[in-house]
């Protein structure tokens, strides 16, 4: 008597099989694409994501000339934020740090920044400032006082004792995306005053 070979057992589709098929399905691909499109719309349309090239050495050592940056529009900006701003006088985009907000009194004495009469700690600058602002500059409403981190080689608010309109800020610098060896987030440094 001869036996017929047994048919191979077919595994019933289980949870792992369904998940694998779902991940490979057209619907899953469309869902991922839709989520990606919404995320990009959020960044570009609602958060105003923009890309910039650092044009000068005015923000060294924090940002280097020819760093490529990503900015996002913020609902409000703080002292210490690095921002890209449209400068109507030069018709250029500038990258600077916010040193003073509306109502602040900004002065430079003894190579250091003073906000509202108090010394402001700035560990990110390359060297002490070699200029003075003896009479404090009062930052007007809806404007900011901007300084480059390379204080002695930066054309900024200290040069003309003028502030810039907040409405001209394009966005806060969030990320360096090139060169790759500098790739990463750009942290803000909140300006702290010693009382």
Topology:
Layout: H1 15-23, H2 26-46, E1 50-53, E2 68-72, E3 82-87, E4 92-100, E5 105-109, E6 112-115, E7 118-121, E8 133-138, E9 143-147, H3 157-160, E10 164-165, E11 169-178, E12 184-185, E13 192-193
Antiparallel strand pairs: 1-2, 2-11, 3-4, 3-11, 4-9, 5-6, 5-8, 6-7, 7-13, 9-10, 11-12
Walkthrough of the structure:
- The chain has three helices and 13 strands, in the order ααβββββββββαββββ.
- With 195 residues, it is α+β, with helices and mostly antiparallel strands.
- The protein folds into two domains: 15-46; 51-193, Umud Fragment, subunit A (Ribbon), CATH 2.10.109.
- The strands form two sheets. Strands 1, 2, 3, 4, 9, 10, 11 and 12 form an eight-stranded antiparallel β-sheet that branches. A five-stranded antiparallel β-sheet has the order 8-5-6-7-13, with no helix packed on it.
- The protein is elongated and about 105 Å long.
- The model has no long low-confidence stretch (mean pLDDT 86).
Protein traits:
195 residues, elongated, 2 domains, eight-stranded antiparallel beta sheet, alpha+beta, 3 helices, five-stranded antiparallel beta sheet, 13 strands, Umud Fragment, subunit A, single chain
């Amino acid at each position: 008597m001869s036996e017929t070979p047994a048919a191979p057992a077919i595994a019933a589709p289980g949870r792992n099989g369904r998940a694998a098929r779902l991940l490979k399905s057209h619907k899953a691909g469309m869902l991922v694409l839709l989520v990606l499109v919404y995320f990009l719309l959020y960044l570009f349309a609602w958060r105003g994501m923009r890309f910039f090239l650092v044009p000068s050495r005015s923000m060294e050592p924090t940002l280097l000339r020819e760093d490529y940056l990503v900015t996002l529009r913020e609902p409000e900006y703080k002292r210490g934020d690095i921002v890209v701003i449209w400068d109507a006088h030069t018709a250029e985009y500038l990258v600077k740090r916010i040193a003073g907000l509306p109502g602040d009194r900004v002065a430079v004495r003894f190579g250091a920044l003073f906000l509202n009469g108090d010394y402001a700690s700035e560990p990110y600058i390359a060297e002490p400032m070699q200029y003075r602002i003896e009479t404090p500059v009062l930052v007007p409403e809806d404007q900011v006082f901007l300084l480059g981190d390379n204080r002695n080689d930066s054309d900024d608010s200290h040069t003309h004792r003028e502030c810039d309109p907040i409405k001209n800020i394009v966005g806060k610098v969030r990320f360096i995306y090139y060169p790759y060896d500098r790739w990463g987030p750009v942290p803000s440094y909140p300006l702290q005053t010693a009382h």
